């Protein structure tokens, strides 16, 4: 593999084009691509072929998956200019003052949604199905914080659909991979049950989560969650009629990585982007 150029830019970086938005300089870009290459090791280990998910998700499909009940604050809608705005645009009017028309689609907030929706009505068989994908994801957050919390970011996921036991094994292998890779990279991670604020603290779903947690996060020392293992039970299998042969509705699980957050964790652990990149190269 050729080594990318990491020429340092004047003043050490590039100006942010807006809140929650960032252009990575060459060193951080090399870190992002190098880390993503290492993260594909889980897909290789689990024989999960790489696919490319859709760039937009239908509102109707997400509604059937309780997305808006669970994450009412995260959605970023895709809009288009209404026909009656086109004359204004061509005349030089400010786009921000012209009407937008809903398209019925949202930008993805997680990579797995598009993959799951594309498998609706499929039978993955008792042996199950694994897929790996990376995509740009977008979240409407209350605040943004450098690489720790972005409006748009890269998320890599390895998804499993099949039996209940298969989903548990998928998460066990995923968690082992995260800890193993963190050790190679010199990262100290803390594993903890995720606190999902969208759950009604007194509701039945919250009680179920407390008794049988379905999400664990791996966090850097400053609390930045850089990876998670997520057990969906057979929720998506039932909602989307995805079957696992005679086993009935498929169980699903995914291992997710926020790639920019891995870049942040590497810089936090090793001092500077250049030192983090040196450590990454020594790991290969």
From TrEMBL:
InterPro entries: aa-tRNA-synt_IIb, aa-tRNA-synth_II, aa-tRNA-synth_II/BPL/LPL. Residues 42-284 form the Aminoacyl-transfer RNA synthetases class-II family profile domain. Pfam families: tRNA-synt_2b (PF00587). Keywords: Aminoacyl-tRNA synthetase, ATP-binding, Ligase, Nucleotide-binding, Protein biosynthesis. PROSITE patterns: AA_TRNA_LIGASE_II. This is Aminoacyl-transfer RNA synthetases class-II family profile domain-containing protein. It comes from Streptomyces tanashiensis. The lineage of its organism: Bacteria, Bacillati, Actinomycetota, Actinomycetes, Kitasatosporales.
């Amino acid at each position: 593999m050729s080594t990318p150029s990491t020429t340092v830019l004047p003043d050490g970086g590039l100006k942010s084009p807006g809140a929650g938005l960032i252009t990575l300089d060459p060193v951080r870009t090399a870190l992002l691509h190098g880390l993503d290459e290492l993260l594909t090791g889980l897909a290789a280990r689990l024989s999960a072929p790489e696919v490319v998910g859709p760039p937009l998700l239908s509102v109707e499909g997400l509604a059937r998956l309780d997305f808006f009940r669970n994450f009412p604050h995260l959605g970023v809608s895709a809009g288009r200019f209404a026909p009656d705005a086109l004359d204004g645009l061509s005349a030089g009017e400010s786009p921000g003052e012209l009407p937008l028309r809903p398209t019925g689609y949202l930008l993805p907030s997680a990579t797995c949604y598009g993959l799951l929706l594309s498998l609706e009505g499929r039978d993955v068989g008792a042996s199950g199905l694994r897929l790996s994908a990376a995509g740009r994801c977008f979240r409407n957050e209350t605040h943004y914080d450098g690489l720790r919390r972005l409006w748009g970011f890269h998320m890599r996921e390895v998804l499993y659909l099949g039996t209940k036991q298969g989903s548990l094994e998928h998460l066990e292998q995923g968690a082992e991979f995260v800890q193993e890779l963190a050790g190679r990279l010199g990262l100290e991670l803390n594993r903890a049950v995720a606190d999902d604020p969208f759950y009604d603290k007194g509701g039945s779903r919250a009680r179920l989560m407390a008794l049988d947690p379905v999400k664990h996060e791996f966090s850097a020392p400053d609390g930045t969650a850089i990876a998670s293992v997520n057990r969906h039970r057979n929720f998506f299998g039932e909602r989307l009629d995805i079957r696992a042969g005679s086993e009935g509705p498929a169980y699903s699980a995914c291992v997710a990585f926020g790639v920019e957050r891995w870049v942040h964790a590497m810089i936090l652990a090793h001092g500077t982007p250049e030192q983090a990149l040196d450590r990454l190269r020594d790991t290969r």
